[in-house]
Amino acid sequence: MLSPGTNSQEPASVPVILLAGASGYVGGRLISLLETQPLFLRCLARNPDKLRPLVKETTQIVRGDVLDPASLDEAMRGVDTAYYLVHLMSGSKDFEKEDRQAASNFAEAAKKAGVRRIIYLGGLGDDADPKLSPHLRSRHEVGQILRDSGVETIEFRASLVIGTGSLSFDLVKSLTDRLPVMLCPRWLTTPTQPIAVDDVLAYLLAAKDLPSGESRIFEIGCPDVTTYGGMIREYARQKGLRRWLISVPVLTPYLSSLWLALVTPAAFEVGRHLIEGLKNPTVVRDRTALDVFPIRPMGIREAIQKALACTNG
C-alpha cells in the first residue's frame, strides 16, 4: 500500500528503482544518492511514517515487509532494479530461517514482476570454510537464494564497513573509547579487509548501470589487510588515546559478547552473532571488482579519518 502523500504515478521515461532496507545503515545513506539520479525511487518500509521525513517528496514509499510475501506485489510493480539491503540479525535466535524466508519472498516477487536486476550487499568469507559462522553463512545463502530465482543478481561481499553508525565499526569505536586496557581474544588477530561506507555506496550505485548479463559476485574491500586489533590501534592513534591490548588464550564468543554488552551499545544477541563472524577471515580473494568498476577504495587510515571527521563535525 502506498503511504499517504506520496506520488503514486511513476514516470514512464525513467527506470523504477526499489530499495528494501531503506531504514538501515547503508540503505539510509543510499537513498540520498539515488534521489540525485535520473530515476524513480520507491522504498519498501514496514512503517512508512517513520521513513517519510527522511526522504524527498518525489520518493515513493510502499508499506511492506519482506517476511510478508503478499505485501511485496505492489512494491515490485514496474521495477527495473531492486536493492536488497536487508539482514534480519536483530535479536532473533533463528535469524537464519528468517533471512532465508525473507530472501525467498523477495526473489519470488521480483521474478513474478519481471524485475531486471537485484543488487545485494552480503559478507566476505570463504564458502569452503566448514567453520564459517552462522552470520556469514546466512549472508552467502541469501545471495544464492536471490540468484536461484533466475533474476540477474549482483552480490557484493564486504567485511566490516567503516563509518559512523555502522554497528561493526561502532563496536571498535566503543571498545577503544571506553577501555584503556583490553583483554584480547583470538578474534582480534583475525585477518580482515574492511571498507569505507562511501566506497560501499559507490559500488552499489554503479551496479545499477552495469550492462545486463549473468549474475555476479564481487568481493570488495580497502587495499589494506589488517586485523581487528590493528583497527583498534589505528583508531586509538588517530584519537590520541593510549591503549593496551593483552592477549588471552581463551575467550569464547559467548563471553566476548557479555563483555561487549557492558561497554558497547550493541544488544547481547546481535553482539554474539557479530563476534561469531569475527573469528573467520574476511579478506578479498577475487579482485574482479577492480576490473569491472572504476572505483578505487580508500585505505583504512583514510576511512577511519573520514569516520572521525563525521563524528566530530
Structural write-up:
The protein is α/β, with parallel strands linked by helices and 313 residues long. It has a domain at 16-159 and 197-221 and 283-297: Rossmann fold (3-Layer(aba) Sandwich), CATH 3.40.50.720. It is 41% helix and 18% strand. It has 12 helices and 13 strands. It has helices at 25-34, 48-51, 72-76, 95-113, 134-148, 167-178, 197-207, 228-239, 253-263, 268-278, 288-292, 300-312, and strands at residues 16-20, 40-45, 60-63, 79-84, 117-123, 152-158, 161-162, 181-184, 191-192, 195-196, 216-219, 226-227, 244-247.
Name a few traits of the molecule:
seven-stranded parallel beta sheet; Rossmann fold; alpha/beta; 313 residues; two-stranded parallel sheet; disordered N terminus
Based on secondary structure, the structural category is alpha/beta
Strand order of the largest sheet: 3-2-1-4-5-6-11
Spatial separation of the terminal alpha carbons: 38 Å
Low-confidence parts? 3-8
Q: How many strands? A: 13
Helical segment tally?
A: 12
Radius of gyration of CA atoms, rounded to a whole number: 20 Å
Write the element-wise H/E pattern from the N-terminal end onward.
EHEHEHEHEHEEHEEEHEEHEHHHH
